[in-house]
Amino acid sequence: MLCVFAHPDDESYGPGGTIATYSLAGVEVFLLMFTAGEAGSIGISKDLPRDELGRRRRLELAAACQALGVREHRILGAPDGGVAKVDRVWAIAEIVHDIRRYRPHVAMTFHRGGVSGHPDHIAVTTYLDEAIAAAGNDGPQVMYEWGIPRDKAPLYERPSLVPLEEQDIAAVIAIGDDAIDHKIAAIRAHATQVDFFHSLEQKFDYREMARHESFARAPSRVAAPAAPVSDLFYGIEAD
Ligand SMILES: [Zn+2]
Fold it and tell me: Near ion ligand 1, which residues have CB within 5 Å?
C-alpha cells in the first residue's frame, strides 16, 4: 500500500487506524509526504521558526511511522502551503517513482474535497490521480480517499471541514483496539500538533470515533462493488 499525503500528521489524524490495521496484518505500507509541515499553526507550531518546526516535524513523522508500522517513508520537501504551486510534472514523477519502486496494489490519500479543505491536500489528490494514470499497468489497482463522513462531521465543529458524502463511501474499515492504540500513539508522536488531538478529545469520545475509518474511491482498474467493502484489498489480483 502506498499512502501519499501533504503534511506530517495527515497520515495519523487521517487513516492512521487503517494503516496500522494493515501493517499489523503484514501488509507493507509506504508513505510519501509532500512537505515537512514547516508552516503549521497548531499549538506551539506558531511560535517556532520554520526551519526548527520543519526539523521537529520530520522527526515526529519518523516516530509516527514507527508507531503505525509504516515500512519506509520519504518527504519531498515541497513548501508547506505551496503544494498546488510546485512543478506538476515533478510532483507526478516523484509519485510515479515510488509506484515503480514499491509496486503497490492500493494507493491512499485524502478525498478530493481535501478533508479540512486545505489546498495542499486537494493538490496531492490530483497529483496522485495523474501519477496512477501515468504509471499505467504498473500502477495500483485501486485508489482510496479517506474522509470524515457527513454524519460525523458536526462533532469536529470545524466549518471548513469538507465531509465525505454517504453515497461516496466505498469502504469502511473496522479498526480494532490494537490499531487504535497505534493510531493514538502516532498522533501523540506529532508533539507539535498534539493540541489538535486534545481539542478533539474535548468534543467527543475519540476512541469510539476511531473504530471506523471511511473512504471514497477514485475510478480504478478494479470494478467498483455495489456496496461499501470492509477491506481495501477487495477485488485486488495478486501479482
Ligand atoms: Zn494536512
Answer: 6-7, 10
